[in-house]
Amino acid sequence: MPNQSQNNEIKAQLEDFHTLYKQFETNVLKKHILTKSSFSLLNHLDSNPKTIKELSHDTNLDKSTLSRQVDTLIKKNLAMEIEHLDRRLRTVQISDYGQELQKQIHQQLDEKWDTLFQLWSNEEKQLLMVLLGRMNRSFQLN
């Protein structure tokens, strides 16, 4: 297959990009003493309180795993538990500190994207969006 070599090179380039970006993201989170899973959970909390059951549905994680992760967020003052009369119902929401940290991290990640594309023309960015859109649609079809 003559295209196999080219396909392998495209795949290698995408894997390299994925690895480099994940390393950057991990380093940003490490500076704030957060894991990817903790940050993801913060993003699911937004500013709306959610029950463990709702979070389980949103994240596809089991309730025991979520409870441990939520406990960690609470200990770090990134989230807080909302008291209920029914003690079986556990609801959490992001704290003000958690929202501020989340905002800082998103800003740092956005700044990286701005830096990456700073020297790209609008046409190059548009071409990349078209090609990535085509790739995403191809994945969805298969």
From TrEMBL:
HTH marR-type domain segment(s): 1-137
Cross-referenced SUPFAM superfamilies: Winged helix' DNA-binding domain
Residues in the signal sequence: none
Domain of life, per lineage: Bacteria
InterPro entries, per database record: HTH_MarR-typ, MarR/SlyA-like, WH-like_DNA-bd_sf, WH_DNA-bd_sf
GO annotation, biological process: response to stress
MF GO annotations: DNA-binding transcription factor activity
PANTHER family per the UniProt record, alphabetical: MARR-FAMILY TRANSCRIPTIONAL REGULATOR, TRANSCRIPTIONAL REGULATOR, MARR FAMILY
Official protein name in the record: MarR family transcriptional regulator
Organism, scientific name: Carnobacterium divergens
